[in-house]
Write a structure and sequence with these properties.
heterodimer, A: mainly alpha, B: alpha/beta, 6-stranded mixed sheet, two-stranded antiparallel sheet, 10 strands, elongated
């Protein structure tokens, strides 16, 4: 396996793991705090302090 | 009878620069509290020209000229301090200091509509009983002047014993005066209403009647009205509220809206498609062959790009909803629909939340707080997600573009636009039908009479429109750049691994199909396929449907990723994606896998299915929370899924029987 391919694979792995972690974190946050669950595109529930 | 408390304990406690001054904005519905709130704080809270726009308390802070912090609390509109509905209860609790996390305000600003001062002044007499320092803001004085009214403000000040400030909050007129009066809050004392003297002198009737009698006398003296004449607002109402013409106007407005969304947005969408194409081509050119190129091209650009191309359409939908809200037509539509709503067993008040459901179900469900009766409110909450929200628009557009020919009907209407209208109508009709069923089975209660204030028409203000379109659209874009992006990346990985080793002599197209089929995603899809086979769907559609249960738009990105990877060029754009879907074939049998019948069946599925975790969460909360809330949310999810599956199955079977393959 060439070095170029290895680097690509490492970057891909990093991106995929970060994306998955982001989704898990977001789901956990939404489950914990239902007030912040609005992610529908309306912005109504967004905190405006 | 409340006890007169004299000067408030909190009056005088505020010293500039030392502590936060808490100001509460109260007033009748649709007097412009949120507009005043925005003008004071510089924030951009949603405003609209119909009663019940604000159903939650919203807080904002600004610094006064002397450096003190001023926190402004925007409260839902209320008619009196005897709460009738959950949103009014919020206002009352906030003023009386019984809300658990909000202290009693230092100053109360009562916003009174200058065009109809009686009801506002009634509220003033009640707020005065709380013994808090007050400021009365007489808003919309420009409209009152245009209507020929003359208001004697010194007389009002004299009789009320409260500062009265005339304002036009939409044009920021009088805002500085309001700020200055708040800065001198320490000098404001609790009001010395003459109504007390009136009462002491033995005014007749119960408490409410006495207050109204006093207010009536005051308005007689302080306000001069021109003789009644028909304004253009009245003339317009004669048409749009007419028993026959009214519903026709309503249908025409809706038809124009959907035509426009489908055709006007097209040039901009084409431009955005070209941009996405360009980005795809750039990625392919500049990256070496390998997994990273595939991730960027097939995962990120195909997934996110295909959702982003819908931004012009979404913005146009929000623009139309904004115009309907701000012009005053929304309240007329609610009034018009009352007779029909009554027949299905819903209160007329339910119509405004249902209309705002076209934008998004979450604020629509929140907006049901204006409905007093619990059964009425629950029935409305249960059916709101059947109204097609903006997240369904990308799915509909893709399916319509992939299956309905671009032809014109009757010389004017595009068949695709009409199909969109039909999908929206299907959802709306289903909502009414299900509501009728709920009211007859689970939530029986008599329907109450409907009273709604018809606000004066006005030309929508560009600034308010732009704010609302920007807010809602930017949230959609943000979502594409975060959740959809992360989702596309993960989906790409699941579709790319484990790798399939291409055998000698295997055609590239077959190898790609094999790769997809053997990937984690492919295996899950094949496992799910039996569940959707009766609807005529293949395993790729099974994955796309399963993926969109968190959020509907992911259907588009999933289809883009799956179909982009199954073909050799990875510059999938929305339009190209529609073509690609139309031509997709089963790799094993060579048969068309995405026939028009499958597309129509899918459309019906998406009209009915509840695929939005946010809606489930908000239903749980608004239906009472805890086990009861969870029960209602589960019922909502379950009946909608059954309706979606049943409807899609019926369309597919009937279509087959009629000879459509």
């Amino acid at each position: 396996m060439s070095t170029g391919l290895l680097i690509q694979l490492a970057m891909v792995a990093l991106i995929v793991v970060s994306a998955a972690a982001y989704l898990v974190r977001r789901a956990a946050r939404a489950a914990r705090d239902r007030d912040a669950a609005c992610n529908c595109g309306c912005g109504t529930l967004r905190e405006r302090r | 009878m409340k006890v007169w408390q004299g000067a408030s304990a909190s009056a005088g406690a505020y010293a500039p620069g030392r502590r936060t001054l808490r100001v509460a904005l109260v007033g009748n519905s649709n007097t412009g509290k949120s507009t005043l709130f925005n003008a004071l704080t510089g924030l951009r809270q949603h405003v609209a020209n119909f009663p019940g726009t604000t159903v939650e308390r919203v807080e904002g802070t600004y610094r006064s000229e002397d450096g003190g912090r001023v926190t402004v609390l925007d409260l839902p509109g209320c008619m009196s301090l005897t709460p009738g509905s959950p949103d009014e209860a919020i206002a009352v609790d906030a003023l009386t200091g019984t809300m658990h996390d909000v202290g009693r305000p230092d100053v109360v600003v009562v916003v009174v509509n200058a065009q109809a001062p009686e009801r506002g002044l009634f509220l003033v007499t009640q707020v005065a009983d709380l013994g808090l320092p007050m400021v009365v803001v007489l808003n919309q004085v420009d409209a009152a002047e245009r209507a020929g009214m003359r208001i004697n403000i010194p007389e009002l000040i004299h009789e009320l014993g409260i500062v009265v400030i005339p304002t036009v909050a939409t044009r920021r007129t009088g805002i500085e005066a309001v700020r200055r009066s708040l800065e001198h809050a320490a000098e404001l004392t609790a009001p010395t209403l003459r109504w007390r003297t009136y009462q002491a002198a033995g005014g007749s009737g119960d408490d409410t009647a006495q207050r109204y009698a006093w207010v009536h006398d005051l308005v007689e003296r302080a306000v001069t009205r021109p003789p009644a004449r028909r304004t253009w607002s009245h003339r317009l109402d004669a048409l749009v509220l007419h028993a026959v013409a009214g519903p026709l106007v309503f249908v025409a407005v809706m038809a124009v809206m959907f035509q426009a969304i489908f055709s006007w947005a097209q040039p901009v969408m084409d431009g955005m498609s070209a941009l996405v194409n360009g980005a795809g081509a750039l990625a392919t050119r500049s990256l070496p062959e390998g997994p990273l190129r595939s991730l960027i091209g097939d995962g990120v650009i195909a997934g996110v790009g295909n959702v982003v191309v819908f931004v012009p359409q979404i913005a146009l939908l929000f623009l139309f909803i904004g115009v309907l809200e701000d012009s005053g037509y929304m309240a007329r539509a609610a009034f018009l629909m009352d007779r029909f709503m009554r027949r299905v067993g819903l209160p007329g008040k339910a119509f405004i939340p249902m209309l705002s459901g076209f934008a998004c179900g979450v604020p629509a469900i929140m907006a049901t707080r204006t409905i007093e009766d619990r059964s009425d409110r629950l029935a409305t909450i249960m059916v709101i997600p059947l109204i097609s929200c903006s997240a369904r628009l990308p799915v509909y557009t893709l399916l319509v573009a992939a299956s309905i020919p671009a032809i014109t009907v009757a010389g004017v209407f595009e068949l695709r636009g009409l199909t969109m209208l039909a999908l929206y109508l299907l959802g709306t009709i289903a909502a009414f039908a299900v509501a009728a069923l709920f009211r007859r089975v689970l939530l029986r209660a008599p329907v109450r009479p409907f009273l709604i204030e018809l606000p004066a028409y006005h030309v929508p203000r560009p600034r308010a429109l732009l704010i609302s379109v920007w807010h809602r659209t930017s949230e959609f874009i943000k979502r594409a750049g975060t959740v959809i992006l992360a989702f596309s990346v993960v989906l790409w990985a699941l579709a790319s691994y484990p790798r399939h080793t291409r055998s000698a002599g295997e055609a590239p197209a077959v190898a790609r199909e094999q790769q997809l089929s053997q990937s984690v995603l492919g295996r899950v899809g094949h496992a799910l396929e039996p569940a959707v086979r009766p609807l005529g769907y293949d395993w790729k559609l099974a994955i796309s449907i399963a993926a969109s249960f968190g959020a509907r738009e992911t259907f588009v990105s999933t289809m883009a990723t799956l179909n982009g990877m199954a073909t050799d060029d990875n510059n999938a754009t929305s339009v190209a994606l529609a073509d690609r879907l139309r031509e997709s074939r089963d790799a094993r049998t060579g048969a068309m896998s995405f026939t028009p019948l499958v597309a129509v069946s899918l459309m019906v599925f998406y009209v009915f299915a509840l695929m939005c975790s946010s809606t489930v969460a908000v239903t749980m909360r608004e239906a009472g929370g805890g086990r009861a809330g969870a029960g209602w949310a589960a019922l909502q999810f379950g009946y909608m899924l059954a309706l979606a599956y049943g409807g899609a199955w019926l369309v597919y079977r009937v279509g087959q029987a009629m000879g459509f393959a």
